[in-house]
Write a structure and sequence with these properties.
- The complex is a heterodimer of chains A (455) and B (202).
- Chain A is mainly beta.
- Helix content of chain A is 8%, strand content 47%.
- In chain A, strands 2, 4, 5, 8, 9 and 10 form a 6-stranded mixed beta sheet that branches.
- The longest helix of chain A has 27 residues.
- With 202 residues, chain B is of the alpha+beta class.
- In chain B, the strands form 3 sheets. In chain B, strands 5-10-6-7-8-9 form a 6-stranded antiparallel beta sheet. In chain B, strands 1-4 form a two-stranded antiparallel ribbon.
- In chain B, a hairpin with a 3-residue loop joins β8 and β9.
- Chain B starts with a helix and ends in a 5-residue tail after the last strand.
- The chains are: A mainly beta (455), B alpha+beta (202).
- Chains A and B meet through α1, β3, β23, β29 and β32 of A and α1, α2, β7 and β9 of B.
Amino acid sequence: MRRPGIRSLAGGAAGIVAGVIGGIALTSTSTASGPALAVPGLDAVHIPPVLTTKDEPVTLRFAVVCPPRADGEPCDGSGSVYVRAGQSGAFRRLTLSRGEVSGEGRYFVELPREIASSREGFSYYAVLRDDANGATVTVPAGGETAPQRSFPLADAAEVVLGPHTFGRDRAQDERVVTAPWGSEVGEVGLAGSRELGFSGPSSFDVAADGTVAVLDQVNGRVERWSRAGVEATSLQVSGGLADFALEPDGTMDVLEPPNRTIPAPVLRSFRGDGSPRWAQRLSDRTWAKLAAGPAGPTVQQQPSEQWLPVAEHGSALDRSAQAGRGRPGRPFANGREVVVERVGAGELRLAELVGNAVVRSWRITSATPLGEVQLAEPQGNRLVVVTKTYTAERSEYVVLVLDRSGVSNSFAVESLEWAESAPLARFRLVGSSLYRLGSTRAGLSVDRFDAEVSR
Amino acid sequence: MKIFLVAFGVGFVLAGANGADAYHRFWANCNYDAPTFMTTMTRDAAQDYANAARYEGYQWGGGCWNYDDVDSYPYDAPGNPSAHGEGGDCSGLTFKTWRESTDDWRDGRYYWRALRNVHGPYTAGDFKNGLGAPNHVVAKSTAGVMDAFASSTHIGMIFTRSLYGGDQIVEAKCEACGTNIFYRTYRSDPGYSGVARWGWTG
């Protein structure tokens, strides 16, 4: 090989340097025109006091959530609450004050006693403002058409739960479904890893004939267990931790969370054969629970903290139509609705409404902290409630069967939650049968408990 | 001249390889600016900050995003920090929202802007155990707005409590989930501990 001359070496080196500089300059031009900055929208945070005790002072608190300021300080907000005693009539405007602390909501108003103590309760909505740009948000989104409604717990049955004793949970009356992890029919999908955590079937429902339908979103299907065996039906779902409800006509509703490409929650409706009917974005940004209501699927949503119907008689409702129909409680076929409010560490308030009147109510206090309320449904002239109780190391579900005078039956149920599911999708009630979705390292189970039986 | 042209081509291809990588990776948009020291640190400013990270994606080991409401790289391989996609991971989002220091012995109070690429020294498990000068463990039943629940593999901050006893959690949970606010029941889950940051001023 001929030895290269000094001119050749210099030319080669200069060529490489020039090439690298040229390449970097070209690609730097490309990256400099990367994603543009935009401004996130205005949002609100509010926990409505939907059930109040006698003479309880009421302070309505709101957080105004703005685009982050360049100086790192909280946003300059303001707002008004439009409130009235009772559930109808004209609203009165009250201006929100700006407090020094924001843990419960920086913007607040103390309700006048004549409103807070009204025998018919009170109703209100708020308009919050970002003073930096004049943007406003109404909460709940239904405004005066579907305001927050608060009711007094008059004549509530008082239930005092002592310290919970863990490990005395009741065994199931029947194991209805056992399914190992996998993708064959009769198996259920498991996603994730030991490092990131596991998620299994995210929800389930039980038909009136006892058929158990499990949303196996990992495998993109629903599986139905009946006396005839198990069958699988494909569903076009995203695979996120969705909630699931069966309607009486066999329609299947899947409530999906936001994901990397769809930033808002969506309810998807499917026919019994799995073919899609429609998909509808929710009114609010976040959901807690899906249920089949008397006229169609209904969803407990945030920030409104209301139950909003997403469809009526088979037709989807757009976002404003949902917001305009918001109610404080979950509606049931008997024309009643059940209002739930967890308060503090260990208090649970419940009321059954007919229209805007409380017909029955309960105030439950527990010495052991209470977690989420998985289920609160009428069963005959009783109300079945499933809530979690927990310490730092343990948790169990407490099942309470309530009547007018208090607790007619109660028992504890083990929380079999090895794999994650949708948040309030662990229990379903059909007649007096309470079903639990559980998971272990081996797979999924659905167990039945007879809520009427005391052991 | 011939040698120069050949070498120029080689150099251009080499630069192009780097440049292509930079073009396809979000971190090319990020910076390493110094944070701003703050004397105030309020929970609602933290809500503003975390809320603005919604829709901006998830990146394992990441801590850099913009505010265009889109995950620029939504299909990065999960668990791969070299993907350099948009978004924080759970602990990166918490670190920046809680205005912490990269030195675990400092209180911090550093306002890290969205495009500042920083994850911080803590894993979810570190937060769960209250490691680091600014962090501590709290009772789950009393954990409040912009405190957090942490397991050995995940941490999410309490955007607010909710009527049914669960919490609205702002979190970066996984590549497919992105960053958003979800209703969760971490409070009653024995796998999660309550954790918080010292020093809120309002």
